[in-house]
């Protein structure tokens, strides 16, 4: 018997999310760093404009000097002067499968990141903390890929047609039935590209006169799809149910902007796990809001399918809800299944409508057969249909790795964003100088990380994003954690004011004997 | 031993300064320019403080005593 759980009885298990704010001096120093960078940026631009320095950037031709300037906006300024200095940490070419460890091609620069050249050496067995390989299905084991090889030899690699012409194979029908069974819905449709699934299908579902309520931090594919549809878009604060409810009430009370008519459709666009924050959507509250105000829900489970939930069936299972509550379930196969492509699942009428009206179905080539077979074998493994418990073991291993990694990082004193159960772990770095230093030093220790700064994140909150995988062993995670500990002390990254005691073993004594 | 740990600590502080002010990202000539500017500013401020602060403090102290002098004539006396 409990004394009263927060949020009443909507949540069956505790929902803990962290978004700790750093101390004030960190924000001040971050702005100072950006200020110095901007001043030197102006200095370099001045030298480039007056010919004191060689121009490596894109610039207009002599004849275009009297036209509207092309490269003077802030984004180009930022790219030229701040991004170029640390550009060697992105777009690193790898030359092996992106499993728990991978091989990297070594790259050096002679002129401060304007050009790169490959030395020819390969850095082997770099621990991979950046790939979205949540269940570890990106593998080259011959036994695992047996069926994929057979299908490759039977069908080849190209489809050379769209879904509506001659591009629907029996493999697609088999895959769609399997996806529908996996998610517990009536029907599903698969597409060749995950980004295109969002951007090409939202315009088919909504149009002018409809209202889209989208989360602040939605992915570009959702934003692009919403803008292409021509519907009115309103944005609510990230995972904030009061903001969403206020928008819904205003939409129903006031209707469309000028004519005050009722909206044709109100659709809420959310994601299962937000990849930059690591937060999980508050699904029970959104479903109860949608039922109260009669809106539709579009759930993008790109990062959460296969990664959360007791059997890997995504956020719907994580919260213990039924998939009938969500109108459109969308997801991608790139993250947890080691393949490419996306799906949309839901009621049979919805999927039949999309088969005829989606831009992707009419104009884009469909998924190629070996990739479809990879998804089929991964899904069968997850559901247990291949006779082993390997799928369930992978999901459990991912859960264990996630909890261990997050707990250790919290104990060390780093600021980590997101829900305790999400395998995406953003570690906050804040200062622009530390972004480059962090990535370079981690590579020296043979660990590959992804660092993100402006414009993908707010300007003061640059971060390093770790993606925990089921294929990581405890030793690999310990190596990474030790390296992070050392680097955290050297770069002074442990800003958290809530870290637990660093010596928990002092209080392990359970029996205290009184001395006579 | 103390000298070594002191040197390490100072090196760590220097690294923090470099990271915070983004001089870690700068090319060598930019760093030279930045450090020259900073050090010259610091030297100017310290020199100004060395010359003017004692004079300001003694003037302020005299003014303070003058204020008190007008209230209680017998209790406080000016020390020359």
Automatic annotation (TrEMBL), chain A:
This is serine C-palmitoyltransferase. InterPro entries: Aminotrans_II_pyridoxalP_BS (IPR001917), Aminotransferase_I/II_large (IPR004839), AON_synthase_class-II (IPR050087), PyrdxlP-dep_Trfase (IPR015424), PyrdxlP-dep_Trfase_major (IPR015421), PyrdxlP-dep_Trfase_small (IPR015422). Residues 124-484 form the Aminotransferase class I/classII large domain. Its EC number is 2.3.1.50. Pathway: Sphingolipid metabolism; Lipid metabolism; sphingolipid metabolism. One of its GO terms (cellular component) is serine palmitoyltransferase complex. It is an enzyme of class 2 (transferase). Keywords: Acyltransferase, Endoplasmic reticulum, Lipid metabolism, Membrane, Pyridoxal phosphate, Sphingolipid metabolism, Transferase, Transmembrane, Transmembrane helix. The lineage of its organism: Eukaryota, Metazoa, Chordata, Craniata, Vertebrata. It comes from Eurypyga helias (Sunbittern). It is found in: Endoplasmic reticulum membrane. It is a single-pass membrane protein. One of its GO terms (molecular function) is pyridoxal phosphate binding.
UniProtKB/TrEMBL annotation, chain B:
GO terms for cellular component: endoplasmic reticulum membrane; serine palmitoyltransferase complex. The keyword Membrane applies. It is a multi-pass membrane protein. InterPro entries: Ser_palmitoyltrfase_ssu-like (IPR024512). The chain crosses the membrane at residues 32-53. Pathway: Sphingolipid metabolism; Lipid metabolism; sphingolipid metabolism. GO terms for molecular function: serine C-palmitoyltransferase activity. Its main location: endoplasmic reticulum. Signal peptide: none annotated. GO terms for biological process: ceramide biosynthetic process; endoplasmic reticulum organization. It comes from the Eukaryota. It is found in: Endoplasmic reticulum membrane. Keywords: Endoplasmic reticulum, Lipid metabolism, Membrane, Sphingolipid metabolism, Transferase, Transmembrane, Transmembrane helix. Belongs to the SPTSS family. SPTSSB subfamily. Component of the serine palmitoyltransferase (SPT) complex, which is composed of SPTLC1, SPTLC2 or SPTLC3 and SPTSSA or SPTSSB. The heterodimer consisting of SPTLC1 and SPTLC2/SPTLC3 forms the catalytic core of the enzyme, while SPTSSA or SPTSSB subunits determine substrate specificity. SPT also interacts with ORMDL proteins, especially ORMDL3, which negatively regulate SPT activity in the presence of ceramides. Component of the serine palmitoyltransferase multisubunit enzyme (SPT) that catalyzes the initial and rate-limiting step in sphingolipid biosynthesis by condensing L-serine and activated acyl-CoA (most commonly palmitoyl-CoA) to form long-chain bases. The SPT complex is composed of SPTLC1, SPTLC2 or SPTLC3 and SPTSSA or SPTSSB. Within this complex, the heterodimer consisting of SPTLC1 and SPTLC2/SPTLC3 forms the catalytic core. Within the SPT complex, SPTSSB stimulates the catalytic activity and plays a role in substrate specificity. This is Serine palmitoyltransferase small subunit B. It comes from Eurypyga helias (Sunbittern).
């Amino acid at each position: 018997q409990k004394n009263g759980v927060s949020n009443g009885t909507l949540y069956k298990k505790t929902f803990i999310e962290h978004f700790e704010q750093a101390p004030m001096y960190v924000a001040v120093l971050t702005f100072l760093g950006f200020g110095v960078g901007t001043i030197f940026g102006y200095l370099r631009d001045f030298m480039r404009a007056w010919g004191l320095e060689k121009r490596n950037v894109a610039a207009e031709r002599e004849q275009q000097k009297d036209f509207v300037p092309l490269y003077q906006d802030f984004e180009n300024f930022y790219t030229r002067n701040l991004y170029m200095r640390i550009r060697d940490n992105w777009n690193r070419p790898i030359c092996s499968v992106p499993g728990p460890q991978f091989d990297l091609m070594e790259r050096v620069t002679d002129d401060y990141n304007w050009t790169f050249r490959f030395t020819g050496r390969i850095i082997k067995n770099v621990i991979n903390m950046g790939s979205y390989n949540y269940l570890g299905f990106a593998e080259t084991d011959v036994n695992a890929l047996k069926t994929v090889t057979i299908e490759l030899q039977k069908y080849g690699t190209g489809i050379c047609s769209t879904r509506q012409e001659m591009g629907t194979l029996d493999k697609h029908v088999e895959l769609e039935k399997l996806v529908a069974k996996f998610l517990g819905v009536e029907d599903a449709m698969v597409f060749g590209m995950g980004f295109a699934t969002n951007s090409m299908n939202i315009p088919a579902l909504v149009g002018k006169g409809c209202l889209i309520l989208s989360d602040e931090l939605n992915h570009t594919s959702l934003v692009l799809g919403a803008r292409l549809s021509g519907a009115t878009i309103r944005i609510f604060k990230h995972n904030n149910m009061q903001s969403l409810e206020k928008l819904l009430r205003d939409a129903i009370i006031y209707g469309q902007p000028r004519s005050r008519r009722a909206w044709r459709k109100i659709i809420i666009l959310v994601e299962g796990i937000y990849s930059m924050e690591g937060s999980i959507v508050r699904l029970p509250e959104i479903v109860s809001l949608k039922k109260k105000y009669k809106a539709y829900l579009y759930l993008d489970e790109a990062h959460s399918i296969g990664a959360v939930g007791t059997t890997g069936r995504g956020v719907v299972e994580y919260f213990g809800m039924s998939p009938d509550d969500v109108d459109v379930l969308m997801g991608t196969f790139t993250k947890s299944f080691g393949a490419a492509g996306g799906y949309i699942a839901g009621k049979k009428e919805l999927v039949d409508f999309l088969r005829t009206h989606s831009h992707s179905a009419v104009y884009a080539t469909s998924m190629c057969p070996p990739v479809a077979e990879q998804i089929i074998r991964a899904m069968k493994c997850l559901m247990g249909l291949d006779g082993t418990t390997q799928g369930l073991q992978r999901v459990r291993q991912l859960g264990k790795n996630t909890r261990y990694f997050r707990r250790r990082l919290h104990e060390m004193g780093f600021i980590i964003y997101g829900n305790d159960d999400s395998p995406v772990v953003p570690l906050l770095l804040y200062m622009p100088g530390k972004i480059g230093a962090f990535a370079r030093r981690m590579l020296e220790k043979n660990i590959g990380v992804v660092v993100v700064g402006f414009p993908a994140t707010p300007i003061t909150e640059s971060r390093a994003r770790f993606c925990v995988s089921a294929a990581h062993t405890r030793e690999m995670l310990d190596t990474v954690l030790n390296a992070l500990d050392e680097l955290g002390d050297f770069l002074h990254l442990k800003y958290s004011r809530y870290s637990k005691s660093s010596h928990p073993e002092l209080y392990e004594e359970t029996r205290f004997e009184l001395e006579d | 031993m103390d000298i070594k740990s002191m040197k390490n600590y100072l090196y760590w502080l220097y690294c923090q300064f470099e990271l915070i002010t983004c001089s870690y990202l700068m090319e060598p000539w930019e760093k030279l320019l930045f450090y020259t500017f900073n050090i010259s500013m610091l030297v100017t401020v310290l020199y100004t403080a060395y010359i003017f602060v004692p004079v300001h403090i003694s003037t302020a102290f005299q003014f303070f005593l003058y204020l008190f002098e007008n209230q209680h004539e017998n209790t406080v006396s000016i020390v020359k």
